[in-house]
Task: structure prediction
Amino acid sequence: MKGVSFINDETHKRRYAQIDLKGIAGYDNEALEDLMDIIIVEARKDEKSIPWETVKAELVKEGKINVSNRRKAISKKRA
Result:
């Protein structure tokens, strides 16, 4: 693929991929975002998952989200 180079380690095994974004400029942004998503998923596949309720509780605790205001807004929309 034009714009992609592979770098080998000292044992001559492919170890790294170097991507020249200008070299693959013919690809649209969506395709590049998909490629990055695949790379991130692959890199994180062995990480422990965290339940949404745990994450939400931490965000509330840190003041990054306010669940009570959101519930009020949803109730108003339904009324």
Summary: Residues 4-44 form one domain. Helices lie at 29-44, 52-61, 67-78. The radius of gyration is 21 Å.
